[in-house]
Amino acid sequence: MLEKIKETTKYIKNIVTDEPQVGIILGTGLGALVNEIDIIETIPYESIPNFPVSTVESHSGKLIFGTLGGKRVVVMQGRFHYYEGYDMQQITFPVRVMKFLGIEKLFISNASGGLRFDQEISDLMILSDHISLLPDNPLRGKNHDELGPRFPDMSDAYDGDLIAKALEIADKNNIKVHTGVYAAVPGPNLETPAEYKYLSIIGADAVGMSTIPENLVARQMGIPCFAISVITDIGVEGKIKKVTVEEVIEAAAKAEPKMTLLMKELISSI
């Protein structure tokens, strides 16, 4: 894996010479943040050696370099999921490459199902912690010391300073935002009412199918993380209804302007 990371990094550095400071992973229906970026270079995933290719319709599949909020950024417009058939090393490979490219912080967004009565569709939730219910871990297997420790500490999975700054920015701009615990499940099906109830009982405030693998790898490599969910459906008893992918994307799109504002100002502040 280490040789593949270095090969991919070398390929990208031959195209983009400036080192990015910030990495961004955009989730389902949240690709419009790129409209705020002064783009320097766009590289399709399929042209990058060793890179997976997104199979989800709402994920564009481009690696974008430019500036946002005065910072040099590299943006994944489209991510990879376990339910697509990729293994955890493939899913998180881009995060390792971004670290080798030079990023110092990682920002992650996702669409998720809300598990609290006070949440509404298109609300934002800043991740304070997570619960992994995924069947595998990207850190399993031979450990390369160059990539980080064998047993990384996860007591600060999501950076407290970035969370505090984000809450200040949300308050200043009158953006309703929750903080909470995100649970990741394999997917691709949405959860049953009993599963929603179980997730709530074990301490989750939202549920999705991504984010945690990327966070685990970032933290192993010493990258501070900030993650934010858009609540695209509600898994609370009495509020559960049938949901289509189109409705999830529509709910994410409605939240996009406030998420974009928050992310842009937060990146500018660091």
Protein traits:
alpha/beta; five-stranded mixed beta barrel; 24% strand; Rossmann fold; 270 residues
Describe this protein's structure.
- This protein is α/β, with parallel strands linked by helices.
- It has one domain (2-138, 154-269): Rossmann fold.
- Helix content is 30%, strand content 24%.
- The chain contains 6 helices and 9 strands.
- The protein has helices spanning 2-13, 88-101, 160-172, 193-201, 212-220, 245-269; strands at 22-26, 38-44, 62-68, 71-77, 105-114, 124-132, 177-184, 206-208, 225-234.
- α1 (2-13) packs across α2 (88-101), α2 (88-101) crosses α5 and α3 crosses α6 (245-269).
- The chain is globular.
- The two termini are 31 Å apart.
